[in-house]
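Bug report

Summary: structure tokens for Thioredoxin domain-containing protein differ between web form and batch submission.
Environment: batch mode, default settings.
Steps: 1) Submit the sequence below via batch. 2) Compare with the web form result.

Sequence submitted:
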Amino acid sequence: MATAHVRFLFVALPLLAQTEASGVTVLTTQAFNQAVLARPNDLWLVYFYAPWCGHCKRLSPIFEEVAAAPEVKHIRFGKVDATIEKALSSHYNVTGFPTIAVMHEGRTWEHKGARSRDGLLALLTRMQEPPVKELRTEEDLQSLQSSATGGVAFVLGVSSSPHPIKNMFLEVARTRQHIDRFGISADDKVLSTISPSSPPYVAKVAHREDAIILPSMDVSADKMVEWVMDNRFPQCSMLDRHNFFDVSAAGKPLVTLFLDPASFCQGEKVDCESRELLEDDTNAGVGAAMRALARELEPQKQMRFGIIDGRKWRDFAEDHLISVETMPRLLVIDHKAKTFQVDSPGDAATSETMRAFLGRVRNGEVRVEYEDYRGMPDRWWRKAVSWIPAIGILDFLPRYTFSFIALCTVCYLVYVLMMFEPMNDGYDLELDERPGAPVPRKSSKAD
């Protein structure tokens, strides 16, 4: 029996050493139940992957590097092969790879932010801090905003009198800690910086924007979460690969200004994620015009606004009928309806021309393009024109005209194939006439 135990330890120790060296635990369903579910107070960062997924292969070394980072404490890391642990992946609604999940105190949140080393470390830093930061000075408020996604934070202003909204605010902060930043202050100077309103109040604070106050203190936790989600983006976002999906999928059409940095930066390299494009007022004032338009229209909550580096997003722009040479350009994307509308060159020159374009969009005067199967006729036509430019003279015809012709052609070919009867008689004759082929026996009367 002792020999069996020694043999088991001899086999198991290399596996344990490998787990300790990487800092990432390989989670099967059984291991998940024992390690994660049985210890809900532990903070886990788990990523679901597929071995064939290219993004997963690039994320794995980053994930292991973060797990081994010295600044990470009291956090456990795990990975799940979703192609094997299908039931576990289905339970956590994993529909794409890689999916990173934060698990703590029986709650699970999907991390949709940056998957870089710095992005994951920032997430873990937030999760290790108190969900609500106490703001004693204006510098504390600025620090909170700087650490928030898009520079947006939510602050509870309190007075000496107790109010039930404080406990509700703390609960909302715990459920949104992985993605939003929250603060609380009773300091008069801090509160006067935010709003002239008397506390208690809940305010959205963001760089270069006036504070937005929660309309009523007599709300439920669900209503407060809904308000936070509706106000968690700045009036005009600097869009990149980390936040584009979240902003575009937030339930409202996204008005996107495509800029080419090279056109107004004299060839200097511009880091889009550093907000230089958003804060630059050059290029005939396009950046300032977009911000002014967002300040005017975003509070109506009918549209969201953003600026994007059109050169970095060249392929995406071209898929939406925008070339770098014609930028700046405006694009209105309705993620829910899977549609988009694009302006004409020159419509994004000033705030007045932008406002006029959006007015035409609201009035239904701008052609609606489709991103799904409904847009296939247009995509086919544009591809055909790129191959044979001469047929562009037929552009005035409805797109379904060409789809109908293509459909009729396909139906005709199918009909011809179904009606075609192969001629096997000659082939059989050739086989019979080959030298040495058996001679068919002639029938006799006896037969």
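Above is the batch result. After comparison, the two runs are identical; trailing whitespace caused the diff. Confidence is low (pLDDT under 50) at residues 1-18, 267-275. The chain is about 40% helix and 15% strand.
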